[in-house]
Amino acid sequence: MTSLIQKLWRMRGGVHPSFHKDESTHQPIQTAPIPPELVIPLQQHIGRSSIIKVVVGEKVLKGQLLAATNAVSPSAAVHAPTSGVVTAIEERLLPHPSGLSGQCIVIDTDGLDAWDESLASPTNNDYQSVANEQLLDLIEAAGIVGLGGAAFPSAVKLASVGESVIDTLIINGAECEPYISCDDQLMRERADEILIGIDILMQLLNAKRCLIGIENNKPDAIHALEVALSMQSNLKSIDKIAVASVPTMYPSGDARQLTKILTGVEIPKNVRSPSLGSICHNVATAYSIYQAVVESKPLVSRIVTVTGNGVKQPQNFEALIGTPFSFLVAQAGGYTKKAERLVMGGPMMGFALSTDDVPVVKATNCILVSSVDQLQLSDDDVTETEKIVMPCIRCGKCMDACPVSLLPQQMYWHTRAKDFEKVEEHKLSDCIECGACSYVCPSHIPLVDYFKFAKTEIRAQKLAAVKADQSRERHEFNEYRKVRDKEEREEKRRKQKEALQAKKAKESAESGAAETPAVDDKQDAIKAAMARAKAKKAARQAEKDGTAVAEPVVEDKQDLIKAAMARAQAKKAARLAETDTIKPTTDKQNAQQEDSNNAV
Amino acid sequence: MQFDTRTAGLVNDAPDISHLMKQVLVGLSLGIVTLFMFYGWGVLINLVLAIVFAVSLEAIALKVRNRPLKPFLNDWSAVVTACLFALTLPPLVSWWVLLVGLFFAIIVAKHLYGGIGYNPFNPAMVAYAVLIVSLPLQMSQWPGSFIFTGEWIGLGESLNIVFGAADTDWDAITRATPLDIVRTGLISGQPYSDIIIEEKFDFILFSHPMAVVSLAYLLGGVYLIKQGVISWRIPVSMLLGLAVSALVMWLIDSDSYASPSFHLLSGAAMLGAFFIATDPVSASTTPKGQLIYGASIGFFIYVIRTWGVYPDAVAFAVLIMNMAAPMIDYYTQPKVFGQANARRQRGRS
């Protein structure tokens, strides 16, 4: 078995904060009670929003489909976490760094927790005889997403492997973020189920081997999985699975970093891992796949770590999706006096929330409540609580800590100068935002915040550039179309005029009196001006007379309109001469664009 | 319940700038002690005066620039600049020379550019360069070690000399430095080996005080590398750059050119390599860049020492490379994760 792991490769950089995992692992995973109300966001995954399949007032059963996958782009189904009544489908606050709201289905729970009987009976233990397509369908139907935090729909990820040959399936149990222990406890308590999930994945991927990467600060989890491996002899791929204990070093749990540690392969930013022979799934995802395939249970709950010194009894809960944070914290004994910050995720990559009135989503691995100073991650007693941000002294500690070999000191410099072109030249887009640089900075500069800012700015600038281009094209085409239409009109009019003139000439020839041909614009304008002057005079006269007659005013107005029209025509003619240079080749293209615009 | 989102999650607790600066002082301490043992009270008077001047000037500059005093004085950077500057000056130098130098270091080189973190040039070296150009006499009056002069100058007398209260017979107490002796000797056509024998220098057996002091700096520098305060790249590449340049010329003509060990141990090479060239603000910061930066300094030290006007050249070499650091950094970006072996992997799959 150990022969599956030839050697471990070294990760570059990384930091070693104190991990604070013990606080939340004193007791086994508790099943959190059903809260009176569940708020289930439609979008809990990367991709498009799912399509709602229920209406307000509908009674739903546990596991019933609430929203189906969107066929257009990657998305994941959402199911009822328990039985109850849909009371609203509305915008609710989401657990998001920007405090965004989103469409949510609100369920008033009935406490019965009654399963939807129409779900396939849990006799599917014989997954080994099920075809791969069917397995994928099951995983897709269960709404499973990557539970390590990215929340990418798992079925899409598995299907994207395509023809690539997978050498190594990597199961990510590293859980390198401080404070978080949900994967740790899942591995300790449900190792058998995880292994079955892995067996299903192995069957799907036909991989040569599977390595379960676990940081060596979780000996219980490693032991539990090793015991399970030695007991579960009925699994088809049992001989291909091995547990790899990797050195504790943040951020070894990043999928690409773990791949490097276990296989030595560095997957570049723009390359998908299957094309280099590996694919990585989280342990909790493997467990959910087991639940979906073997127990026919969609993803309606997950393990959530509730921890930090702002919580009375830190522990892990199996919580229904949609459970409010406040409800879960109350289950952990409530807040202590030190509850000053609320973070979803860990202290390194998590984000602060302004309120606990948000639901647990599929990506919620940890609810961290703490005082400001507890987030200082070393064991040393630090006297000052507020650290002053000093100027960067370019010491390069961030560079040494960066797992992807960036130069944070240079990127910071250029970001401060808002020289985003230079920041991009320093490979900003490769930044995985792990926060190791911020953690080691002796000047206490929140480096990763600067990089997130730079990324957002660059994205906004690019979007603005694209939009400007589009509107410029649209404008140019509009102008061109005006000219073209006018040309056509003129042509038509000219023909009519010619016909008329021919007719007139004929007539005049008949009467014997030859008249000067058509009046041109200039003459029109002069005439109009004269008329206007006349009208004005008349008006003045009328005023003088003291008889305010409406008629001359009206006449005056009409004259004005006539004159304006004449002027406009003259101008148009001039512009026509100018814009004759527009290339007719763009005509077709623009017409197409116009068509498509109309279609939208 | 509502929460404050001001600091997102992480609060950094890494050792701060003042910790790094204090570590540098610890690293310097061995060198200071040896220097004191050989050259007497002048060394300590230099240090104390320099620190007093530097911190006062720093405080004034901060006040004028409307910056908070406490955090910036607490960073200890002015103290480190003061110590490095004081150690490059001849002991027993007049007090006002120190003041002028530190004015250039703290006010001109540091605060006119924006204070800590923003100075493109190493402040201590700017001060040294200004002084050696403007006050060559004062800067060249190195008192001889008491082991040569046979006289240990007491604290009171030292203070008198520094503050100009006594007429000093400089000829009696000063002595040319090894770099000076070898330089003038070589210029006058004496073979290098003869000069060394005549002066009883042996820079392999540490028979000269400067060699012992250099060794003390070397040990302090190794401590800093061990503590992770500085990286090995700049000192090692700088010493190699100097040694290789010296070795090549020495092998070509060992009579006209000094040996590598002489260059490494006779002057400020060790102090420069571990404490001056490694000033992070003005140095190159990329791994490859640091090697280029260090090696170039070593090379320039050799060139200026051998063919230049000034006997020691650490300050000029460092300042020259300070200018080049931004460009070096730009062209020596490391390959990011996945790029190093991207091509190979693509070829394989």
Automatic annotation (TrEMBL), chain A:
What cofactor(s) does the depicted protein rely on? [4Fe-4S] cluster
A Pfam match: Fer4_10
Query: What is the membrane topology listed in the Swiss-Prot or TrEMBL record?
Result: Peripheral membrane protein
Top-rank taxon, per record: Bacteria
Q: Which GO terms describe its cellular component?
A: plasma membrane
Q: Which UniProt keywords apply?
A: 4Fe-4S, Cell inner membrane, Cell membrane, Electron transport, Iron, Iron-sulfur, Membrane, Metal-binding, Repeat, Translocase, Transport
Chain intervals with Basic and acidic residues compositional bias: 474-509
Assembly with partners or alone? The complex is composed of six subunits: RnfA, RnfB, RnfC, RnfD, RnfE and RnfG.
Tell me, in a sentence or two, what this protein's role is: Part of a membrane-bound complex that couples electron transfer with translocation of ions across the membrane.
Would you tell me the protein name for this molecule? Ion-translocating oxidoreductase complex subunit C
Automatic annotation (TrEMBL), chain B:
* Domain of life (superkingdom): Bacteria
- Which top EC class applies here? translocase
Protein's membrane topology: Multi-pass membrane protein
Q: Which cofactor does it need?
A: FMN
The EC number on file is 7.-.-.-
Q: Which residues cross the membrane?
A: 38-60, 72-89, 125-142, 203-225, 232-252, 258-278, 290-307, 313-331
Q: Does the keyword RNA-binding apply?
A: no
The primary location reported for this protein is membrane
Record's Gene Ontology CC terms? Answer: plasma membrane
Q: Is the GTP-binding keyword given for this protein?
A: no
Which GO biological process categories is it annotated with? electron transport chain; transmembrane transport
Q: What's in the keyword line of the UniProt record?
A: Cell inner membrane, Cell membrane, Electron transport, Flavoprotein, FMN, Membrane, Phosphoprotein, Translocase, Transmembrane, Transmembrane helix, Transport
Instruction: Spell out the subcellular localization from the entry.
Output: Cell inner membrane
Residue positions where FMN phosphoryl threonine is found in the record? T177
Primary role: Part of a membrane-bound complex that couples electron transfer with translocation of ions across the membrane.
Q: Which family does it belong to?
A: Belongs to the NqrB/RnfD family.
Subunit record text: The complex is composed of six subunits: RnfA, RnfB, RnfC, RnfD, RnfE and RnfG.
Q: What is this protein called?
A: Ion-translocating oxidoreductase complex subunit D
What gene name is listed for this protein? Answer: rnfD
